[in-house]
């Protein structure tokens, strides 16, 4: 790959995830502290991203691939997104905020797949070349968190405006990317192929079914972390919470690099169980830590994000890729994306919001110990379910 193309794709990924990292982590704190939204409203706000994740496969499969050059569509979506982000920063009522955020989510979620597709079109060996490019996305998320924390604007609409400016820059920059024309001559896809419904044939295999069910279930407690950790840390008095939360993405990079070592020795089942166990431990650390002598428990809970995310999500994606026949791999990946980022996230946003409201105390403070024990217990139940029913036949066959 030419150096120019590598730099183009790497900077594309950095800006792509910088925009998301600007607002996604700190939005919950802003909504609760500044706009005085309740937990249920915060949950519904985060649910917009999950709704868009469930709908975007239609958009990608039926419209984007067939009618638009990727770089032009990518640029247009980010430019429209910039306008919507700025508008979001100016509204103060839940109804208007929700509508604008939902519209923005419909613009942003397709761009994640589009940026991947654009990158893959330029790579000779995606398996070796793409990780080195995609890691810039995680770095972009980290830079966003550090910047927002440094500026001290976690409870201000400023981070939406920063995201809007960068989204506009990214939109214009996207038009300079290598040209990837629409696939006008591609084979027509059915609705079931677009949504990954063909992969339901794999449900005849018990391990695949258990993996999908577990993926949906474990995403429910995950949304407690994404939606409310920043608000929780700010409420407990931690300064620069957004910056400190980037330690989770830093650990994600580290554990991503060591995953091949562990995967070869542990196999699918043990890797997933370690990831789930880390979720349980993380929430217990949040429940019993404090911002004084036990603040190390908060930091440890944040750092565990690398194990929580990589050991479950990445292992699950590898399992699906290896288990599905070649003609169903795309459908299977579409199905697990729908199950996690769509269905699981959406249920999680609603559940987490209701739990947070249940433990609202006076002066807009919360009983965070009880709040964090809910996802801890739920994660433990999912772990027990997976441990009992999943037999790891893939790993057994790989050893034979």
Question: Can you offer a commentary on this structure?
Answer:
With 400 residues, the chain is an all-alpha fold. The chain has 2 domains: 1-178, Growth Hormone, Chain: A; 192-392, MFS general substrate transporter like domains (Growth Hormone, Chain: A). Helix content is 79%, strand content 0%. The chain is built from 16 helices and no strands. The chain has helices at 3-23, 27-33, 39-67, 70-90, 94-120, 126-151, 158-174, 191-195, 206-235, 241-245, 247-288, 295-303, 305-323, 329-358, 368-389, 393-399. Helix 2 packs across helix 9, helix 3 (39-67) runs parallel beside helix 5 (94-120) and helix 3 packs antiparallel against helix 14. The longest helix has 42 residues, at 247-288. It is globular, with a radius of gyration of 21 Å. The chain starts with a helix and ends with a helix.
